[in-house]
Amino acid sequence: MYLLTVLLLVFCAHSNVHGYEREPTTYDLISNLTRSVSSILHILKDEKADNGPLKNLAYKRETYQSTTFATSGKAVDGISNSQWVAGSCASTHSEQHPYWYVDLGKEHIIERIRITNRGDCCPERLHDVDVTVAGHDKRFDAVCGTFSGPGKASEKVVVQCPKRTKGRYVRLQITKGSNNVLTVCEVEVMGR
């Protein structure tokens, strides 16, 4: 019944938008109804495929990093304060290719990753970051994207993954240069 009501509302709205200078024929009515049904089916198909709204899959999940200057879990505590003194940023020591990753617990569809950069010092440390995804095997071979940088103070970097990227682990890794420090104040993995 709900679907029929929606169909009628869309049909009426579609008919009024296009207007008629003459009385609509049966063909006009059927044509508009067909377009309306097609639009609704397309919307319903997309909603079913998406399985609801995006959520932060990384929140309070298990995290790891190559070395520890500040605990890796601070990046998924739900606090995006970019000031070091707030105590909510994760950081590695200085090394060649530092990395940080999160275990989402199970495989999910991943849409995008949002990274909050440090704001009070050294924002340029966030550069040449590859964002990769792995399944249960921990082979980080699915590339979501790259942030070339250098980052700006308190910048929220968004890396969009290719459609239908699926994985359990999401890793950030600086891939160029030496003596790099990877500092992230929040990492949100948006998906379903």
User: Biggest sheet: strands, sense, closure?
Assistant: 7 strands, antiparallel
Number of domains: 2
Order of helices and strands: HHEEEEEEEEE
What CATH architecture label of the largest domain applies? Answer: Sandwich
Q: Using only CA atoms, what is the Rg?
A: 23 Å
What can you tell me about this protein's structure?
One of its GO terms (biological process) is regulation of complement activation, lectin pathway. Acts as a defensive agent. Recognizes blood group fucosylated oligosaccharides including A, B, H and Lewis B-type antigens. Does not recognize Lewis A antigen and has low affinity for monovalent haptens. Keywords: Calcium, Disulfide bond, Lectin, Metal-binding, Signal. Belongs to the fucolectin family. Pfam families: F5_F8_type_C_2 (PF22633). This protein has two domains: 49 residues; 137 residues, Galactose-binding domain-like (Jelly Rolls), CATH 2.60.120. The two termini are 29 Å apart. It contains two helices and nine strands; from the N terminus they run ααβββββββββ. Helices cover 22% and strands 34% of the residues. The N terminus is likely disordered. With 192 residues, it is of the alpha+beta class. A hairpin with a 7-residue loop joins strand 5 and strand 6. The strands form two sheets. Strands 1, 2, 4, 5, 6, 7 and 9 form a seven-stranded antiparallel beta sheet that branches.
